[in-house]
Write a structure and sequence with these properties.
261 residues, alpha/beta, 8 helices, 20% strand, globular, disordered C terminus
C-alpha cells in the first residue's frame, strides 16, 4: 500500500475500491488490469477494522471479493458489508461482487444464499453458459474457475447473464451498474497454486475437481478468461449511472489507503 497520493489519478480521477477478506488476499489479475487501465486501487479489509466510505464520490467503482466465510454468517463485518452495498446501489456507481461478494449482493437484495441440495461443491474449472441477455452484453469464456460450496437464487429485479453446471446462477446484473459473478476470473497461476495447496481438503467434496486438473486447465482456459475480464471491466466502468458530474470528482487527500502496487 502507498499512503502518498502523488500521481494517483485514474481516467476518472478516482481509484477503485477493493474489499478483501483475508490478510494475504490479492485482487489478482483483476487488480493488474485495473492498474493497466490507469485506475489506482484503494484496498480495504473491513474484517480487520478498515472503514467503508459513506459515499462513492471519491471512487470510480467498488468490488467486493470472495473469502472463506459465508454471506449467511452473523459476524459484524459481514453484516456491515452487506448493508454497505446499498451505498453504490443508491448512487448508481459501478459495483461488482465476486463469489462471496456476489452472495452479499444477493443478500442485500433480499435473495437467498444456500448450499447445494446434494452437498456438491464447484472447485476447479466448470463450463459457463451465457443467457440471451448475457450474450447481448459481452462474449463469455466457455469455462471459468470456481471455489465455493454455496450458491444463490436470483433476486427480484435482477437479470441472469450466465448459468453453470452444478450451481445454475453464475452471473447477474442489477440496475444500471451492479453485477455479481460466482466465479473467480481474477485467479492467477500463483493464486491457483496457493489455493489448491491450502485448500486441499476441499477437493474431496462431491463435484470438486482434482488438483492436477486445476493446474492443467488454468493454462488452457485462462487466456479467454483474461480477454473476457479485460473487456468486462471496461463495460463495468462505463456502466456508471452517476453522470458527468459524479464522474469528474478528484481523489480526496483524506483517503490514506490507496494502493498503487
Amino acid at each position: 500500500m502507498n499512503g502518498s497520493h502523488a500521481g494517483l489519478t485514474g481516467p476518472a480521477g478516482r481509484p477503485v475500491l477493493i474489499v478483501l477478506h483475508q490478510e494475504t488476499s490479492s485482487p489478482g489479475k483483476l487488480g493488474q488490469l485495473l492498474r493497466a487501465k490507469g485506475y489506482p486501487l484503494d484496498i480495504r479489509r473491513p474484517r480487520f477494522g478498515d472503514p467503508l466510505p459513506e459515499s462513492m464520490d471519491e471512487h470510480s467503482g467498488a468490488i467486493i471479493f470472495g473469502g472463506p466465510m459465508s454471506a449467511n454468517d452473523t459476524d459484524d463485518f459481514v453484516r456491515r458489508e452487506i448493508d454497505w452495498i446499498g451505498v453504490p446501489l443508491a448512487e448508481k456507481a459501478p459495483f461488482l461482487g465476486i463469489c462471496l461478494g456476489a452472495q452479499m449482493l444477493v443478500k442485500h437484495l433480499g435473495g437467498q444464499v444456500t448450499s447445494h441440495c446434494e452437498g456438491c461443491a464447484e472447485i476447479g474449472f466448470y463450463r459457463l453458459s451465457p443467457t440471451i441477455e448475457g450474450k447481448e452484453l459481452i462474449d463469455w469464456p466457455t469455462h471459468v474457475y470456481q471455489w465455493h460450496r454455496e450458491g444463490f437464487d436470483l433476486p427480484d429485479g435482477a437479470t441472469l447473464l450466465a448459468r453453470g453446471e452444478l450451481f445454475q446462477n453464475q452471473a447477474f446484473s442489477y440496475g444500471p451498474a451492479a453485477f455479481g459473478v460466482q466465479f473467480h476470473s481474477e485467479l492467477t497461476y500463483a493464486m491457483a497454486c496457493r489455493w489448491t495447496v491450502r485448500g486441499a481438503e476441499r477437493m474431496k467434496l462431491p463435484g470438486a475437481r482434482p488438483r492436477t486438473e486445476h493446474m492443467a486447465s488454468w493454462f488452457r482456459y485462462d487466456p479467454p478468461v483474461r480477454r473476457w475480464l479485460d473487456t468486462f471491466l471496461d463495460r463495468w466502468i462505463e456502466s456508471d449511472g452517476r453522470g458527468a458530474q459524479g464522474a469528474g470528482k478528484s481523489v480526496s487527500s483524506s483517503q490514506a489507503r490507496i494502493a498503487s502496487s
